[in-house]
Amino acid sequence: MKKYKLFAALLAVALIASGCGADKQAKTDNEMYIEQAQLTDEESNLLSMVKADRDKTFDFRTDETVKSVKINIYELKSDGNWRQKNSSEGYTIYDNSGRIALVYDSLSGEKDISIDTGDSMTSVHYQGDGENSFDGLVLSDAFLSEKTVIECEKEIPLALQIYSYGNADVYGAEQFYSPDELKQYEHVYAVTAVFS
Question: Which residues, in sequence order, are bridge partners of residue 125?
Answer without folding.
Answer: 112
